[in-house]
Amino acid sequence: MRRKKQTLETLCSCLIAIIVSAANLHAADPIFVSMVQLLANPAKFDGVDVIVVGYCSLYIPAKNEVGAHGSDVLYLHREDSTAELTKNGVALRITPELFLKPDDYNGRYVIIKGTFDAKNLGFKEMYCGTIRNIQEVTPWVLGSPDKPKK
């Protein structure tokens, strides 16, 4: 009986350790990654909080436009947006609060902090993943350091 109790206590301790470790994985600081890393290895960053720099292309419907669908995308390069090379981009799940002034971000390089989702390939599965739970968007300034300061 005593041995069963010890085994049960050991199993409970192991389970608690696993749960705490898993919780700490998601509580970690965001990882700064390049768009190249994200596009080449989307599964590696699935569910990871990332900071990434790319060219922001926002879909802004015309005032009289009804029923149209577009995508908000972070591309590797401006030329990828122009040529609509969708596999060189990741979809963005934009919250209205973050983009009160879309002209501050649309058509510019930006730094985005959010959670990468490799399974969600965006509108018609055209992209290499999605950045969701976006916490911060900052226009990229030429000459900015590669790694944003905390």
Question: How would you describe this protein?
Answer:
The chain is globular, with a radius of gyration of 20 Å. Strand 1, helix 2 and strand 2 (49-57) form a beta-alpha-beta unit. Strands 2-3-4-6-5 form a five-stranded mixed beta barrel. Residues 10-25 and 65-69 have low confidence and may be disordered. The chain is 25% helix and 25% strand. With 150 residues, it is α/β, with parallel strands linked by helices. The longest helix has 26 residues, at 2-27. It contains three helices and six strands; from the N terminus they run αβαββαβββ. The chain has one domain: Beta Barrel (OB fold (Dihydrolipoamide Acetyltransferase, E2P)), CATH 2.40.50. It starts with a helix and ends in an 11-residue tail after the last strand. The relative contact order is 0.18.
Draw up the topology in text:
Layout: H1 2-27, E1 31-32, H2 35-40, E2 49-57, E3 73-75, H3 78-82, E4 89-92, E5 108-117, E6 130-139
Parallel strand pairs: 1-2, 4-6
Antiparallel strand pairs: 2-3, 2-5, 3-4, 5-6
Short description:
Helices cover 25% and strands 25% of the residues. With 150 residues, the protein is of the alpha/beta class.
Global mean pLDDT:
76
Number of strand elements: 6
| Helix/sheet category | alpha/beta
* Main beta-sheet annotation: 5 strands, mixed, barrel
CATH topology: OB fold (Dihydrolipoamide Acetyltransferase, E2P)
CATH class wording: Mainly Beta
* Number of H/I helices: 3
